[in-house]
Write a structure and sequence with these properties.
The protein is α+β, with helices and mostly antiparallel strands. It is about 35% helix and about 30% strand. Strands 1, 2, 3, 5, 6, 7, 9 and 10 form an eight-stranded mixed beta sheet that branches. The protein has a five-stranded antiparallel beta sheet with strand order 4-8-12-11-13, with no helix packed on it. The radius of gyration is 32 Å and the shape is rod-shaped.
Length: about 400
Amino acid sequence: MDGIKFSASNSRLLESSLINAEVKEGEILPPTIHKLMKGYNKYLRPFFDNGPVTVGMSLDIASIDTISEINMDYTATIFLRQRWTDERLIFEGNKSLSLDGRLVELLWVPDTFIVDSKKSFLHDITVENRLIRIFPNGTVLYALRITTTVACNMDLTKYPMDKQTCTLQLESWGYNINDVEFYWTRGNASVSGLDTLQLAQYTVEDYYTSVSEAIYETGQYPKLVFHFELKRSILYFILETYVPSSLLVVLSWVSFWISLSSVPARVCIGVTTVLTMTTLMMGARTSLPNANCFIKAIDVYLGICFSFIFGALIEYAVAHFCTLSHMDAHMLMVIAVVVVTVIVFMTVVIVIVITIITIIYRHQMHDFDDDMNGIITTISTHASRAKKRKEPAATPVHSS
């Protein structure tokens, strides 16, 4: 009991010291803040007995630093801005109050979190990058600069000609839909920065926002989802993979113009192209996950190239054997047709098997997505959710 009293006493002292703290040159905080904080309880949300509080959100995407296919995630730096109305903070005047970010500890703020975040941190150089601004009608603007690593479930079956749709999901941790409502302040225009974003390997093709509800065992919680579609730039792969593999196939065909008696020359070309193609295939897989989506479009292409190169080596072995056996021209023609037929048949079988595996994999991934994060019911898309309680007209907010 004494510990509780001691903790409560320390808390009151801390709040009192923050409110009565002196700024430089001996000036104290304006009387307006003292008046607002008097009797204010940060542990109770606004409109505690009068319906849910509506929180509007907007995002600025400062950068998307890395997109990892191995870890299935992306790292982004965002400016998250939240707006809500607190009737306890209404004051007289026509100018807003910009407070020190450390005073946010004295106010109630939404318990927003990023759903699929693996690792996040708030920038704190030179001070914590937080902004708090209060308007005369009680509207509060709360802005943060966050760097977060977010999971993005990727389908790599069409790699490197694939498109990936990633999301940034914002939820309330403890307040359900009866306490808090989320909405995008300006619909799709609530997210900015992607139009001028420069990515090393991707281009942003499309993006949009949606409002949802997340259903868990503990209840229904408000949820905002930002979707963005990334298209991979294929030029790098054309220069690094497709052109070299195609040239290796052509190089393996050079052996057809070399005399059958030149065994070292033809064997050297055949073995060298096979080993080079094997190295190229292994290199194309080093930057990709092996367990997830192990069959990709680039694997199909490289596999077919390898079949042609290996077939050229087998063709010389069969032709050399037939020459040593002194077979007639008709028999040689029959053997050549059989070899070509076998190679084509094997290639078709490989393509069919890869197609079947891809269909099965995509079906399993679709079922997995339906079960992930509970059952999510989309309430509306491309628009703000209708509010149950109208907020007073806010003074125009100029974001920092």
